[in-house]
Design brief:
The protein is mostly helical. The chain has 14 helices and 2 strands. A two-stranded antiparallel ribbon has the order 1-2. α4 (88-118) packs antiparallel against α11. The radius of gyration is 27 Å and the shape is flat. The N and C termini lie far apart (61 Å).
Length: 299
Amino acid sequence: MSTAAVSVPSNRSQSRRSSLRRSRRWALIASYVFLVLFAIFFLIPPYYMVVTAFKSDAEVARMATNPWIIADGVTLDQFKILFTNTDFLIFFKNTAIVTVCVVCITMVVSVLAAFSLGRMRFWGSGLLATGIFLTYLVPDTLLFIPLFQIVKAVGLLNSYWGMVLVYPTLTVPFCTWIMIGYFQSIPKELDEAALIDGAGHMQMLTKIFIPVALPGIIAATIFAFTVSWAAFVYPMAFLYSSDQQVLTVGTVTSLIRADVYKWGMLMAGALVAAAPPLIIYAFLMDYYIAGLTAGATKG
């Protein structure tokens, strides 16, 4: 009887473990199936963009041709015409200047603001930090009209330097919020030890907080770069000269004339414009994910 009593619970536990393994296996299979489906769904637009960019205009215009394959052979004519016969390189240069300036301004302001709000506690600092984040939630479609008046008043209308003035309204609040979370997570003993050693606040920031919060700084930098590189509403409203346009608006306005769409060059321009963010994300994706998750959690 004792042997039977022991064998029954043992059989039950084995059946539970086997059923648990089966459920885990089916859950894993379902996860991979959905992952493959989502990957296919999201990779279809980039694939179509690549295929169209390497086609000739004649093949793109032929309605009988399969749009998902290159039937007449790969050609670089779309890129050659884009670089030589349009102002695409001017758009690229303007976008690069604006992006570099906005990223520098954003990081300086965000790091200093986050350090003061996260470590130098004063009355109303918590409320002010929440208010800074709430300003990020205001859509830019509501802000471009008053900002238009400001940019016009300072004489930067139809100048890409006006974008350097208005883009930080999108990047500074979110980057500051991320950095506050990182700075608040640093142990206070480091502050006290630095103060005992005679370090000032700027020395604490540059020698302690910035090295420790480097993943958050990288995440904020990538966010500021992405927003300033891909913004559309502000340049659409503030810029109208070809020599002042940025990529997002200049490529579209120069390659779409009435009902004529230069699909090949549009896709080629989109590929070139997407290359810098893609390269940055490819090399710094781990830092970006760690910075966003840790900063948001600690904040």
